Amino acid sequence: MHPKKPFSQACDNNKGPILDTLRQVFTAPTTVLEIGTGTGQHAVHFATHLPHLYWQTSDHPNHYQLCQPWLIDAGLPNIGNPIALNVSQEPWPLMEFSGVFSANTAHIMAWHEVEAMFAGVGRGLADSAVPENEERGQFCLYGPFKYNGDFTSASNQSFDQHLRSHAAHMGIRNIESLIELAQSHGMVLAQDRTMPANNQLLVWRTTTEPEAL
């Protein structure tokens, strides 16, 4: 084992429930772009158990190499070396992907970055979408969200206050705002799955026709 592997307890706790959903979403061989790979624990776990996927890691240019110890230690052939990805800078440094996964990023990013992430995901999935195959062109977004402006738990409300005290641009997002944003980039909410610790896993899929806002 690499002596300096970073570790996230949250990743270790939620990797099993997330994998259960990813097994059902990404059933066909495809390239999945992970936005915000972080420590690399998710990437290694999912690539290990979903060998039919090519898992392309990425993170912000300031810390995209953080995951390398986990990737090197695992030595898996279906994980791509991390890409430095600033979602707000176009074009994105990736040739092609037909699936996307991102965990605990929407409440860390500023809202304009969330908008840029959805725009980039929408473009990438639209370019690779296969209309007759709904298994392609899907975006899995994990984290805490608000519904009708309300937190799903007292702990999420406390977490939101903690985020905003740390940086004003952070905060738990309203799912209605994300639904509207996704629609503007050719995606609709196909699944909303309840996860442990008051989190959700949202599955967006590309549409063949733009939806009216």
TrEMBL record:
Q: Does the keyword Methyltransferase apply?
A: yes
Entries under Pfam families matching the protein: DUF938
Any coiled-coil ranges, and where?
A: none
Mind listing the GO biological process terms from this record? methylation
- Key words, A-Z: Methyltransferase, Transferase
**GO MF annotations for this entry?**
methyltransferase activity
User: What is the official name of this protein in its record?
Assistant: Methylase
Organism expressing this protein natively = Marinobacter psychrophilus
